[in-house]
Write a structure and sequence with these properties.
With 173 residues, the protein is mostly helical. It folds into 2 domains: 102 residues, Rna Polymerase Sigma Factor, Chain: A; 69 residues, Winged helix-like DNA-binding domain superfamily/Winged helix DNA-binding domain (Arc Repressor Mutant, subunit A). 75% of the residues lie in helices and 0% in strands. It is built from 8 helices and no strands. Helix 1 crosses helix 3, helix 5 crosses helix 8 and helix 6 crosses helix 8. The termini are far apart.
């Protein structure tokens, strides 16, 4: 890459908002997301000279963001276990008390149902349903087979339906 600074500025310009919502979908908290985005962009900046273009820039950036968010969640789980807290209960409190959440009651309940999903299912569901990424893109980002992703997505939608007491009205992609 010839001009790293220009490339980095373009990445920030092109992906900041999408990355915010991608990471927010994983960690659920606005302040944590903002902190993580700073870390993610620093990591991208440091890794940019080594980007060889073997995958698309979008996929590369999303892989970095996803890995950083997952690393953050792992640390958070360890802290919660040490403090004997339930992350599900904490996630529900965060959603209920989030001043940046501007959805109605149905959206709030959906957010709570998604927060209760296992980590992998929550990420696959968010990337597929909200970000409208293809299974192939998600596979490149997560390093998981398309078949396994489809199964995770299916199980996630089933759990969300159960959590929201829905029948066939919930649309699956």
């Amino acid at each position: 890459m010839e001009n790293l600074e220009e490339t980095f500025k373009q990445i920030v310009s092109d992906y900041s908002e999408q990355l915010y919502w991608h990471v927010r979908g994983i960690v659920d908290d606005h302040d944590d997301t903002d902190d993580l985005l700073q870390d993610i962009f620093m990591k991208i900046w440091r890794a940019l000279p080594g980007f060889r273009g073997e995958s698309g820039l979008f996929t590369w950036v999303w892989r970095i963001a996803t890995n950083e968010a997952l690393g953050y969640l792992r640390k958070k789980k360890v802290r919660a276990a040490l403090q004997f807290q339930s992350l599900d209960a904490k996630a529900e409190r965060v959603i209920d008390n989030d001043p940046y959440f501007n959805g109605d009651a149905a959206q709030r309940e959906l957010a709570k149902a998604i927060a209760k999903l296992p980590e992998k299912q929550r990420i696959v569901f968010s990337m597929r349903y909200f970000e409208d990424l293809s299974y192939e893109q998600i596979s490149e980002i997560t390093g998981t087979s398309v078949g396994a992703l489809k199964a995770s997505y299916y199980h996630a939608t089933q759990k969300i339906k159960e959590g929201l007491n829905l029948s066939d009205g919930f649309e699956s992609k």
